[in-house]
């Protein structure tokens, strides 16, 4: 599904350069649910951004679903992101003047689907996250958990191969976090490959595999017994 | 390609930010409003000038004889110059290719009477070509013709006012009018759109006048129009050339300003042309200045909008928006705001001109307004202006990196 080898990335900060990723090797199979953990500054977000094609590595290899990702032009990156990836963010990142349905349908707009088809698919995914009744509400009228579910529906709308979640529960209280995690687990059960960055141990334990990063290298990479979020709710 | 979804996106964005869109449009609307009103006023001034010149041929040259003020070639100063038929022929022979129409004139004041009605009018004895120089319209009957000249017939063509005053309800054509004791047959009635004074005139053949008033071949002055294909400078030098050759013909010193006087309309036309084109230039400069200020205003606000929407643009990019789609959103929004605002300004401007136009007549502004061509031109300019205003901000927007836009802080 995903294969990364000898990935390096450094940022220039004024005169000095900050070496963030110092040779990452990682491969993820289809159907996996991986948590990337690490303290802040460990490079976990940078890694996720490179996987999400929001950022470019300095050197190293990145193959996504058999497709080598290099020499990305903005246009190509946009097409790949739209086709292969779904993003879930800590702060939801919904467009505030669009209602839930319009937000969910936006990736489909960039796929060039007809409006009617977009509405149909959008409603389908909103139903899937249990928010069909809220389709015509603006984000500000939704609770945090509802917003994240709209964001998940949006990430699913384009039917991506890989779901990338950056601290998906970071802005939510514990109960809501577990609800969201339960939902993400359910998606994984249905076969979606999921990669998430988190620094919360209980959330990480709800994944099937934990990759621990420290100072730009992988410290630990282990398969864990998944804790079902449903048990906590 | 007309992309309905793109427009939906843009209308949504404009609609959500009405105040902001209104503000950014305001400068453009104001610029176009100002431009329209200024342009309308300039047109009004030009119309006033045109009206003042009437429909007289504006390519005419009038040559008056006078008295010499300088002794020359053994001739004394104070000598009176008298034009004759041969001088008319001389001008026609020498400058035939540059002359469109030429007439000689003898002017008198006459008392004209028909039955019991009596009044004094100006009598102009002319060649048939005079009709074209004065731009007279024959309302009834005919004008003076070559046959009249040849046979020195006693015929008269009378102005509309003369007709109304002397003949009242009688049909004048075919009747005899008494001019200072001599009866003339009225062959036509003419009108002149220059006003009443030009219609208080009676025309007779010049040869008839020469016979009646002294049995000579004297001419009071000559009136000609130059070939309309000549430009202003050519016309001016033509005027100088006529003056020079007539001065030689009459042995007048070159520096003598009184003996032969030439009044060339090209001089006035040139001044008016320069005045109006100068005015137009000033207005264009002011108009474009304000328009540029408007563009800068829109551009500024669009840059602010892009900054404000950085996060949204980042989200769109993360969801797969191509740089092109981001550029078109900003660009089309800018064009739309500029074009609509500009059009509102234009409509208000035209409305104001229509409204106050009639009351500006006292200020030398006649019928101010803007032409359809200007409106179309302005529309194209506005769309271009919107594109220019939106270009930099759109470029900026397309360069936004999603990872920076999506940072949590």
Question: Can you put this structure into words, describing what you see?
Answer:
The complex is a heterodimer of chains A (233) and B (409). Chain A is built from 7 helices and 10 strands. Chain A is α/β, with parallel strands linked by helices and 233 residues long. In chain A, strands 6-7-8-3-9-10 form a 6-stranded mixed beta sheet, sandwiched between helices. A 4-stranded antiparallel beta sheet of chain A has the order 2-1-4-5, covered by helices on one side. The two termini of chain A are 32 Å apart. Chain B has helices at 4-16, 18-53, 85-95, 130-134, 146-151, 160-167, 206-212, 232-249, 265-308, 310-318, 323-356, 372-398, 402-405, and strands at residues 60-65, 83-84, 99-114, 117-126, 137-141, 155-159, 176-179, 182-191, 201-205, 218-219, 221-226, 260-264. Chain B has 409 residues and is an alpha+beta fold. The mean pLDDT of chain B is 83. The A-B interface holds A 49, 52, 54-55, 74-75, 78-79, 81-83, 87, 89-91, 93-98, 106-107, 109-111, 115, 154, 158 and B 4-5, 12-13, 16, 311-312, 314-325, 398, 401-403, 406, 408.
Q: Largest interface, per-chain counts?
A: A-B, 29 and 25 residues
Care to count the β-strands of chain B? 12
Report strand order across the widest sheet of chain B: 3-4-9-6-8-7
What's the oligomerization state? heterodimer
Quick description:
The complex is a heterodimer of chains A (233) and B (409). With 233 residues, chain A is of the alpha/beta class.
List the keywords.
heterodimer, A: 233 residues, alpha/beta, six-stranded mixed beta sheet, four-stranded antiparallel beta sheet, 7 helices, 10 strands, 33% helix, 28% strand, B: 409 residues, alpha+beta, six-stranded mixed beta barrel, two-stranded antiparallel ribbon, 13 helices, 54% helix
Helix-strand layout with pairing:
The complex is a heterodimer of chains A (233) and B (409).
Chain A lengths: L1 E12 L2 E13 L4 E5 L6 H8 L7 E6 L2 E2 L5 H11 E4 L11 H11 L4 H14 L15 H14 L4 E5 L7 H16 L3 E5 L3 H4 L4 E6 L2 E7 L10
Parallel strand pairs in A: 3-8, 3-9, 6-7, 7-8
Antiparallel strand pairs in A: 1-2, 1-4, 4-5, 9-10
Helix pairs in contact in A: 3-4, 3-5, 4-5, 5-6
Chain B lengths: L3 H13 L1 H36 L6 E6 L17 E2 H11 L3 E16 L2 E10 L3 H5 L2 E5 L4 H6 L3 E5 H8 L8 E4 L2 E10 L9 E5 H7 L5 E2 L1 E6 L5 H18 L10 E5 H44 L1 H9 L4 H34 L15 H27 L3 H4 L4
Parallel strand pairs in B: 4-9, 6-8
Antiparallel strand pairs in B: 1-11, 1-12, 2-10, 3-4, 3-7, 3-11, 5-8, 6-9, 7-8
